[in-house]
Amino acid sequence: MATKIPPIERAVVVLDQLSGALRTGDSGQTAGLDLWWDPRDQSSGLRDLEVIFAVPEGAADLSGGLDQFAEGLQIVPVAPGRSIVLDASPLSPGARPTALVSADRKLRGAAAEAGLYPAPHPALLSLMMSGELPAAARITGRYDQIIRLAASHELIPLHFQPVPDSSSRWALIALASAGILTGAALDGLGVTPLPYDPMTHDLVWIRVDGHNKEEIREHIADRQILFSEPGQILLALGPGDDAEAIDAHGEHGHRELLIPSPELLRAPIVSAADRPALAPWPVRPEILIPVDRPVLRPLLPSCATVTASYEQDLNRYTGVTALDSTGPVNSRHIAHPGNARVETQLLKDLQAIGYCAVRHNFVYAGKTYSNLIADLPGTGTHRIRPEILKRYKEITALPPNRLALEEFAHSLGAPEHEFAAAPLSDREIKEQVERVLNLAPWYPWWRICALPGLGSDLVVLGCHLDSTAASQPGYQSATHPAPGRDDDGSGLAGVLTLARYLWSLRGKLTHTVRFCFFNAEEVGLVGSKAYAANLKAMNAPIRGVICMDMIGYNSDAQRIFEIHAGYTDPVVRDRSLPLAQTMATAAAAYGTLAAGQIYKGLSSAGGPDRNTFDGAINRSDHAAFHQQGYGAVLVSEDFFANLATEPSADPNPHYHRPSDTVVDLAYARAIVCAVSQAVVKLAQ
Question: Which entry of 124, 353, 415, 606 is 20 to 30 Å from 338 by CA?
Fold first, then answer.
């Protein structure tokens, strides 16, 4: 099972969604570095490994250097694409065994061709230093057995859920050493090898339902099936594979990309009070300003007020009117030029409202894409005096000055003997200071932004910004239209509209509302999975997630809508049910929709009993947060089957076709208004 290689002596780690990111200031300058995995950690076993972090050219201004942020790490700018392997002289393979770590399978394929040893995640480097490559396997057993096994540094989870039709067994898809897999088998766990090359390939679930079986048969007839279970088939995508080639569109959410995620089995942080403490000393009370708890009058704003910009936003982003100075956009597919235009315009729209909007970049199949993120900062219970924050920004903007840093830490309350008794690096002092000041990388505090107060959690409001028309025969994603007015122009316009409306409540909500526009949903939930994993790695305190996906199609007078809280893990499902009830109550307050259909099932197979079934499990962006353990719900139109005693379901017949150009504006706006009140309730 094990594959032997020469022990690697050097690693090139590309900064991406699986390794880390530069902190980029408002003018593009580098303001710091965040690593989701830290080679300086003594437990990582990489003390003798030379690690080079590669930053794509143009990603940031590196003219000032990164010594103050990286402390001993070598960071070099490199040209994108294959030249990261072949043309950048500091990274040429030479005679030393060298690993290339990247989330991008195309880049990993190029690295293998160039004589390097590719890896999809930096946590695999310690194993590669010992001269071994990981194997992929599906491991089954009791929940507690899997959790104990996953504590090893030589196992990287990709997927973890209960075994279908089993009340006691769980299945973990992971990359692991031969020793870990052998030990698991000897301990009585089921171990099924997955025969593919995990260093150059990615795994993808293909969804199977009654609507797409023949289409799937055609697409995967010449591919090796690695594993299958009711409702889905597991395949591998190689460096040269185009994911579009195995499109098989059925009911909803036709595929899901699996990514290495060490955070997957860790409990989530759901409150700022639960975040682990880094500093051994508390902040001095004199630098805190108490915040009066904001009180909102219990008035229900008119839906017309809440959604005043909805139709205009919907028309701009679905090709009805001009998006920007170059005219309308007729597709938001990631392979289409319109996708980049939409990214850019969303950023401009959010900044024009007043938000400190940022890009969250991720790589996929040889290209870089962005999720767009904007925060309405919560007041919390206290805030740090502005002059304190200003002084810390000044210190971190200068060349390293340990004396100034220590003096600043002492001014916050650090004991005078703290750094003498236990010598700390500049990086460790900064971590302690930032913890005391409630500065965390899940909020871009290094930019010119209004900061949330201490004790402010996150309420995530999301949608996906991309579109597809892949159900249309002969569809060419790079050139053909995919207006996606319902999927998911309706949700995109809803989130943007609420960003406009909720701006009027700035300074009045205790918790931060985060507006998220996820990219590459249609090719496997790629953007949201990258983002949810990053938030988990940063210990972001997430109170709840509400996503809107397809909220606009309604062809009858029933005005039924769905709230999906179901998930295979009953603990996560139970975290999601209060969100669903809050959403249903908010809709009832307006009284313009039918009672929300709350899906609370633990299985995506079967139906239409909503107590046992939820067809949206793992099929939209809320799933990325479910998989990381957060409470989350999806709000959508009446898509899935109803009970025999209810009106027939009303799914959009134009799903994933160029004819997806119809939205019932009154119906969609009613859902957006209900979401607005649910978000405000959660953020109070």
Answer: 353
d(CA 655, CA 670): 21
Burial class (CB in 10 A: 0-12, 13-18, 19+), 488: buried
Taking only the tens place, the pLDDT of each residue in 81-135 is 545 554 444 455 556 899 999 999 999 998 999 889 999 999 999 999 999 999 9
How far is C-alpha 457 from the chain's CA centre? 17
Is there a domain that residue 122 lies in? yes
**529 belongs to a structural domain:** yes
Contact (Cβ atoms closer than 8 angstroms) between residue 659 and residue 570? no
Task: Please return the burial class of 42, using the count of CB atoms within 10 Å of its CB with bins 0-12, 13-18 and 19+.
Answer: exposed
Residues recorded for the chain: 684
Residue-wise DSSP of 463-513: EE-----TTSTT--TTTS-B--IIIIIIHHHHHHHHHHHHGGGTTS-SSEE
CATH of the domain at 483: 3.40.630.10
Q: What is the pTM of this model?
A: 0.95
Domain span at 102: 3-129
Q: Order of strands, edge to edge, in the sheet holding 10-14? A: 74-78, 50-56, 10-14, 98-101, 117-119
Burial call 63-101: b when 16+ CB within 10 Å, e when fewer: eeebebbbeebebeebebbbebbbebeebebeeebbbbb
Q: How far is CA 19 from CA 11, 25, 46, 213, 432, in A?
A: 12, 20, 15, 37, 22
Residue matched to tokens 């502005």:
386
Distance CA(538)–CA(540), nearest Å, equals 5
Comparing CA positions, the residue from 80, 66, 11, 76 lying closest to residue 34 is 66
Domain endpoint, select from 102, 129, 156 = 129
Average pLDDT over every residue of 344-353: 98
| DSSP assignments along 406-472, one per residue | HHHHHHHT--TTHHHHS---HHHHHHHHHHHTT--TTS-TTSS-PPPPBT--EEEEEEE-----TTS
* pLDDT, tens digit, 9 for 90 and up, residues 355-409: 999 999 999 988 899 999 999 999 999 999 999 989 998 888 777 688 899 999 9
Task: Tell me whether residue 47 is exposed, middle or buried, using C-beta atoms within 10 angstroms of its C-beta: 0 to 12, 13 to 18, 19 or more.
Answer: exposed
* Residues 15-34 pLDDT 10s: 899 999 888 888 777 777 88
Is 534 within a domain? yes
Distance CA(399)–CA(349), nearest Å, equals 35
> Could you give the CA distance from residue 211 to residue 649 in angstroms, rounded to a whole number?
15
Greater model confidence, 435 or 198:
198
Q: Do residues 85 and 117 lie in contact, with contact meaning Cβ atoms separated by under 8 Å?
A: no
Give the closest residue to 468 by CA, choosing from 530, 519, 528.
519
Counted domains in the chain: 2
CA gap 553, 547 in Å, rounded: 16
Nearest of 483, 484, 492 to residue 464 by alpha carbon: 492
Is residue 66's pLDDT more than 70? no
Domain boundary among 129, 148, 169: 129
9: β partners = none
629 domain residue, yes or no? yes
Listed in order, strand segments (DSSP E) in 604-676 are: 632-637
| C-beta neighbour count of 37 within 10 angstroms | 18
Per-residue pLDDT at 78: 61
